[in-house]
Design a protein that fits this description.
Radius of gyration of chain B: 22 Å
Number of strands of chain A: 2
CATH class of one domain in chain A: Mainly Alpha
CATH superfamily of one domain in chain A: MetI-like
Number of strands of chain B: 13
Strand order of the largest sheet of chain A: 1-2
Shape of chain B: globular
Oligomer: heterodimer
Distance between the termini of chain A: 47 Å
CATH architecture of one domain in chain A: Orthogonal Bundle
Strand content of chain A: under 5%
Shape of chain A: flat
Largest sheet of chain B: 4 strands, mixed
Distance between the termini of chain B: 40 Å
CATH topology of one domain in chain A: MetI-like fold
Chain lengths: 326, 460
Amino acid sequence: MTTTSGEARLPTSAAGPAAPSKGPRAGAVARERRRNAYILLAPCVVVLIVLAIYPMFFSGVLSFRVDPLYNPNVARFIGWRNYDDLFHDFRFWQSIRLTVLWALIVVTIQMVLGFFLAILLDRKMRGAGLLRSLIIIPVFISPIAMGLTWRFIFEPVAGLANWIVSKGLGLEKYSWLSHKDTALSTLMIVDCWQWTPFVALILLAGMQSISTEITEAARLDRIRGTAYYTRIVIPLIRPVILVVLLLRLVDSIRIFDLNFIMTKGGPGSSTLMASVYDYTIFEQGHLGLMAAYGFLILILINIVVAIFLNTLYRAEKAARLADAKN
Amino acid sequence: MKGIVHHRKGALTRRRMMQASAAAAGAALAVDFVPKEVHADVGGTIVHFASSGKRLANSLRAVKPLFDKVFPNVTLEVVSKPMSDALTQINTYMRSKSDAFDVITQDHAQFAALDAMGALTDLGPYIDPSSDWFKDYEEDVPERYRHMWNVPKGTSPPGYIAALAPDGNAMMTFYRKDVFEKAGIKVPTTWDDAVEAAKEIHDPEHERYAYCAAMARSFWAGYQFFGILRSWGGDYFADEANGDWTPTIDSEEGYQSLRILTELQKYAHPVSLNAGEDEVNRVFAQGNALYSPLTWGTATLNDPTYSEFHQDWHMDLTPKGTTPKSDHRALAGGFGQFMPTWGGNRETAFAWIKFLNSGDRTELGGDPAIADAIVGAGGQLSRRSTLSRWADRKPFFNGLLKAYPVAVVNAPVIPEAYAIMGAVGEEVADAVNEIKSIEDALKDANRRTQRIMEDSGYYD
């Protein structure tokens, strides 16, 4: 009987690797195991096909068509024209530029602030537990509710933020969300307010997983302050840093809810990031163009993920090799 | 599929409280409402989808207690979503042939698209038995609303009756009468006067900004632009009536329109640059903005529970340009009610639509209490007879009565109207925010309009 690679991966008995199949009984067991594996996998595969593969295939086909939501009678195949239109569209490049800028800035701020916050929370102090519980609250707030609340806070004339700026600090009122030059940075403030605690808590978990023997050894070697974090903590929690970096980076590229609720891409197209722009294209009824744009964003996210996974893999491999040498 | 958009049970939200107060106001009116006839033989359930807010869904909720008295065995359910999402959602539901709703309230500009999707029901056969009532209705609502009952099926006139509209609107000048009187300024009738007036009353140090308008990207900014364009004598296309679909947005009239919008921004409340109508109405109600020569506005600005300046807000015709082609041309707006092709309970659904549109004349089956319930909830009407009855109490209605005779259809009656409005609005918003020059924005608006029309085969 020919064994497939699938069969080779099936669990073996506790006594060790299974002996080569000899006779009909062993073959029947292997077949049954294979069948069970397929049965167990089937629901997952069906869900994946229905909810991911088919829609992706469908939108792939759609991206080569003109198919206005408002007039199905004129739908037809147009080849690469939707992609060509996007590449010649000022707003497409604007949205990509803003999305990349957004991702780089907010993720950098969140990682840096999150790291310092984690250091603070890692200290033994009274109320640290309570502080950790309080600090995570923004992560649990619905982005829609949060966006609406912040929109009122940043209202340029009667909002709380400007009340503090003018009455409390005696400064000129700031335009926040209502001017093209300040709207994006205001959105960034809100995003950092929400996600920095998340980064901090993940990094804190990483820091707290460092063995006490290592921290004790560092203390004995008089490695303290900045050196302790740069030479001990960061190298040890590097995989955690990379994972949280990847999560935040992908999330930032996909930003929609906050952007949609707070500015809808405005004023003008000054905060028009990728997902909101894609939604606008849908809102105006251009289904084919929307699908083409969605595909381009998918490719962008995949490139980012591939680069990061590759970096993560190389870093891990290098660390293992270094360990083996020592 | 019925009930897929039903709300969470139990949660007490501001919206829920507004809905409850609308229903309570309707219930209070219903106490004195004595129906001439009761149709106990009619039953079933009707699900009506409408944009949320006082003007639309809550007006329906206010009429419901009256309807319940006339049709005690009919279960009527009103479901709603915020207007900015509802317009697209309705199109999505209809494109997917959803049977979730029996009646839908939708913006006028969407009816040609709904027709192209095959979503509209010819109301003619349902109207026929009540021809006297319909004749009265036709005479009472503005002529500009006729495109809703003359939807151009294919190319063959005369079309068919697709919807009825108890709701009406037009872009108007909104101004604080007290401020204008104090400054000794008359309501501007030309765009250059409008800019001068804004300059005169602008007082940002005291948080009183002269001007505010919905300039958010996409269709809000589009309405602003086309409202001014039409008043300069410009239009969407070279000769729509004779099938010349060459876009004429990049024109002298287009330039003047964008120039005026850019000038007015100097005196604008800061929210203006990214505002939808809700934000504009809020700053009007708060007293932080004093004037808009061109806005959709809301009847609730004359409502004492909404604004302390309810007696000061007055409405008039929008300004015009200074060329011979210029004139006061308000864009007509409003919402119509249709029965989707895939809905059920047709006779009962039409009975509800007719009830909402029945008017004041009791001999034709109407009752003033119905319009009163709509007005009480914050609705605004299309029937001129009812507007006249309320005009002395609501300056907004007086403004509508002035605007209706000069109003023009806000967008071409073609399925592409909303897409064009959105595309042009994006370019306008970029120009006003100085992200693009006026010339580039006009060029791009023209190019994008041409592409939309080309995709739909207008130049084949």
